[in-house]
Amino acid sequence: TTPVRNICCVGAGYVGGPTAAVIAYNNPHIQVTVVDKDETRIRRWNSRHPPIYEPGLQDILRTARDGTHQRPYTSTWHGSTRESLSNWLERKPNLFFTTDIAQCISEADIVMIAVNTPTKTRGSGAGSATDMTAFEAVTAVVAQHARPGAIIVEKSTVPCRTAQFVQDTLLLHRPNVEFEVLSNPEFLAAGTAVKDLLQPDRILIGSSPTPAGRRAAAALASVYASFSPSPRIITINLFSSELAKLVANSMLAQRISSINSIAAVCEATGADVDEVATAIGADPRIGSKFLKAGIGFGGSCFKKDILSLVYLANSLRLPQVADYWRAVIAMNEFARDRFSSRVIRCLNNTLVGKKLTVLGYAFKKNTNDTRESPAVDIIRTLVEEGPREVAIFDPCCIPAHVTEEIGRLLGTDVLKENGGPVTVYTDVYEACDNSDAILITTEFDEFKNSGELAGAEEPSPSEQSETEYDNEEDLEDIREIMGDHDIRPFLPYVDKPSDRFKPMPRCNDSCPDCERHSIRR
Ligand code: NAD
């Protein structure tokens, strides 16, 4: 295969940004450019304040985007203070962010399409079919500008047989030019994106079964081979790969719904759902992961991918299959509503005049991704009961963003500034002060380890070791990959969960991108 020298990733979102950063980081010889039509997003990716928070991302980004030709600093990262001038790794920047979409596509050996593919909200298939507007628009631009022989990769999660549509679009615009289309779905999870990208369970590459298709798959595999052992790279057929991504998310969501259904039975019978989960998880055929009962799954992917599978099943006239998967979503909504109802019941069936605190607004820990967060529906239900205050605190989200989003989703009337009950706090203790009930809606370690939340000087040994273990694991990944290269995370984001309760460090006041300047301290 011809060596890959230039990759263009279209879509600078939760997938495109971190994926491109990790690929660039591990392949200094490849120029990786991320393009997006959203100028603000690109500006932020080029600033000290990237638009998304993921543990470890700052270090990867800084190295690949800015190079490492600056003077090293004295680090305490490894537990001891040391100068590392001699170990300083020199490398040139090879990761770029720009809005110059056509130009970058025209220069790329591989074009990755990583734009959003949400659920359709209007027209035929509204509420379940995938909205392919963004994907289709990008495909047309790629078809017009890609250089002959370029490999076109579907990174977005797309309906089965989309590769055929991409191939047809390419043929329509450039009838005499050969292009190979690959499916390479992304399995990263928000909150652990960098870790998942650095140490993937598997990398799935779907290609056509022709020699040219296999050559294209090998070229893409060579990009991943620099950081992932080849047995983890699975090459299959195009449509299987597209479908596998939908099925993976649907099966993960199904496990959560399954254990949540059992939680309802446990609460009614006196059995303990965690004990049941431990007992069944010991069977390797079931496995212990993803069996934590709670308020249900959120995030931009699980629900939309199940809905896409439901739509596919219905369009194939398989209503039984569609009903089966739709029930996973119904059970998820049941789990979330059951939680809100229980809170109201515990407070004597009235929230009037009461203060409730919602800890965690993101859909899961260690991310600022709030899409489809269960917290939103819970807040909506609480507000309807007429409380005095609904106080919200999230350690990863910018309060101004949370306020803006709640105003958009629930109406601006609910906000305190307009006389409503919803207040977003920057201080967890103020949020909890005088509260009638504290609801933990995201499993951030700070909330789980109650010693930290209660302001205890010393967490208990078990809590301490859990916190340290989580941090250590994150750091270990970065250390392994960075070797002796000292890392200084950018301000103002901090990676250690325990640091998030400390006042946010201020960055240079002249920085135009720092949204934290508006935060009350
Ligand atoms: P996102 O909304 O965060 O980012 C998509 C980006 O695409 C946006 O910045 C948007 O401006 C850009 N875009 C849209 N139309 C464009 C156009 N015509 N030209 C240029 N840029 C355009 O989405 P995401 O969360 O990164 O998800 C992207 C895809 O990856 C989806 O298909 C999703 O299902 C899939 N996926 C997401 C995750 C996740 O955890 N978020 C995980 C695996 C797979």
UniProtKB/TrEMBL annotation:
Residues 357-459 form the UDP-glucose/GDP-mannose dehydrogenase C-terminal domain. Its EC number is 1.1.1.22. Pathway: Nucleotide-sugar biosynthesis; UDP-alpha-D-glucuronate biosynthesis; UDP-alpha-D-glucuronate from UDP-alpha-D-glucose: step 1/1. It catalyses: UDP-alpha-D-glucose + 2 NAD(+) + H2O = UDP-alpha-D-glucuronate + 2 NADH + 3 H(+). Residues 452-472 are annotated as: Disordered. One of its GO terms (molecular function) is NAD binding. This is UDP-glucose 6-dehydrogenase. It comes from Bombardia bombarda.
